[in-house]
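To assess whether the prediction recovers the assembly geometry, we first specified each molecular entity separately, as shown.
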Amino acid sequence: MSVTGWTTILVFFLTIVVLARPVGGVLTRVLAGERTLPSRILGPLERAFYRLSGVNPDEEQSWSQYALAVLAFKLVCFVAVYLILRLQAHLPLNPAGQAAVAPDLAYNTAISFLTNTNWQSYAGETTMSHLSQMLALTVQNFVSAAAGIAVAAAVIRGFTRREVGTIGNFWADLTRLTLYVLLPACLVLALFFVWQGVPQSLSGVVDATTLEGAHQTIALGPVASQEAIKMLGTNGGGFFNTNSAHPFENPDALTNFVQMVCIFALGAGLTNMFGRMVGNERQGWAIFAAMSVLFMVGAGILYWSESHANPAFAALGVDPIQGNMEGKEVRFGIVGSALFAAVTTDASCGAVNAMHESFLPLGGMVPLVNMMLGEIIFGGVGSGLYGFILFAIIAVFMAGLMVGRTPEYLGKKIEARELKMTMLAVLCLPLVMLGFTALAVVVSPGTSALSAAGPHGFSEALYAYTSAAANNGSAFSGLTANPFWNVTLGIGMMIGRFFVIVPVLAIAGAMAVKKNVPTTSGTFPTDGGLFIGLVTGVILIVGGLTFLPALALGPIVEHLSMLRGIFS
Amino acid sequence: MTMIRHIRPALVLFALLSILTGLAYPLGLTAVANLVFSHQAQGSIIIRDGHPVGSALIGQNFTSDRYFHPRPSATSGVDPADPSKSVPTPYNAAVSVGSNLGPTSRSLVARVSAGAVAIGADNPDAIREGWKIPADLVTTSASGLDPDISPEAAFFQVRRVALARHLPEMRVHDLVVQMIRQPMMGWLGEPHVNVLALNLALDAVQ
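The predicted structure of the complete assembly is given in tokenized form:
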């Protein structure tokens, strides 16, 4: 660990603090349908979209209508992506002549991208045509991100409205977020990435003759356009197999820093939008503070872990000073890789710039724990905030139990129905993560896909289902997914997305019709230090109790084995 | 049921947003990027004597004593003798991949052990002078295409390259010093040396 390393972490965090308010302001205005700079230019396009699709943007939807709209849209997305991938051999923009994607892989990939997971069971450069990258995958990167933010906005509206049954219009939210937030930001970002060296080309490959006379085929493509939305929308699906570790996706330390900022930018802005919408920005900063504590602890442990060399290498004459460099790029070094791994799993991005599988056991455990906690540390765009609100509901419920009062959050009574919905959403994630892992490590189609033996093999399986259910998409990528994995991971991703979205919208609907309870001296304040501590504790205890046994079987026992020099 | 009401907006909005974000955006960006940053947009390809010799951003394999060596790479390629098999092909820029070996993997320790022995044999003078082997020279990168090595890894190889090229050791050493890229603003990123750029500069010396 070094001073420059900690400087990087600190400057990164301060950048996020500074960005939260302006980003929150833009999001609030766009979602309220107010005029912004992009809307002055693209306004006619928005109105044309509504006219052609028969949408009245001012027509409000009930929670069930909103949820049905989300599901209908996702169904169309699934069919479209699946068909494009299956038919890509017959479609244009396929310079490398990629064949049709296999049915189980096309199904897995379609679900993966529409749920904002972007788990990749394939190597992009050898599987996808340029058309598939653009028309299937880039589109999903935009609309799955926009849909996530839309749901978060709808949930917040549930808390702010009094005695009305509606929480906004999904079609208007989706269109405005794509047109006025994601698209303009991505245009700027993508051009910046090209300037720094990320290719944006329609040719397939460049053939070079190396200095030693060997032949090198260099894969190219429209990378920058995909890269920008991949980071900003916390999607994480890379153009290339090795994602942001590939020098064409992430050429230098500056792009690496910008990519990390992009992952957190919207998630942090959403906490501020939350504060603005509920009429008290301190409510947003309280959430921001709880997230920051969890972020710092994870990033610190990861940086500490990876600064150590693998103890087995010392006897081989290898200098330990560089730390654990297996699966890392020299231009990022330890801190650029460790911080990226923490950020990408705090949020539900899943882009990687180092191979998480090659981290030391405790370093690899941090991304795993970040995902197990539900990715509520800034989180995926939208999903991080509504996921956090679930924990906030549990926290005020516990506070209510302790003092014997009906719990309230943001002036709304929390009653049995909301708690049932919260628990449904909170419990379905561990069920998928642990249940599928238990299945995969005992049946042969499951174990045959694992690349590692012993505790590390168990971690590989646990990481995969955790990543799927949390809609992250990063992997211990030694796993070579076969149809068993593609199908079960697809189911996991769907449950992880929709068994949270539907209950959380139901909570929003229930909140919207409730009366506002006046704040009294007996009200538990949710914008102060006590709440921050309580909710952080709830997140860690719920996560800790549920997952500790599984972690003990994987990374913890592997760490002890490593110290004892036991290999498998 | 009311699901029917959502079918038209779902289909039409999906189609419109697809055209906008899946065609207009990437294709428009391709046009602009190739106007403004045409070199980068086409992969930062380095041309020497009229022929592409590689990309400034993508590592390539070097085995000759006359060149600085990059890090080991985990990429593989099709076996020329039997197309159904794949063989280790370092720095195959058509398919990026990391080793994905875990920290307690026997294969990892065996590979690093063999790598350390080979590097010691290639650079006997450095070992005799008491250098430890820089970790990046025995570990594979995440992409398998890492274009860089640490300054220590470059200095480690100076004696070998100087001997093979019959150049004064100080000359090669100074060249390495010139080629080190320092962290931006003093803190962002790691000091590193681009192996292809260093070797091109080396070729230009003679």
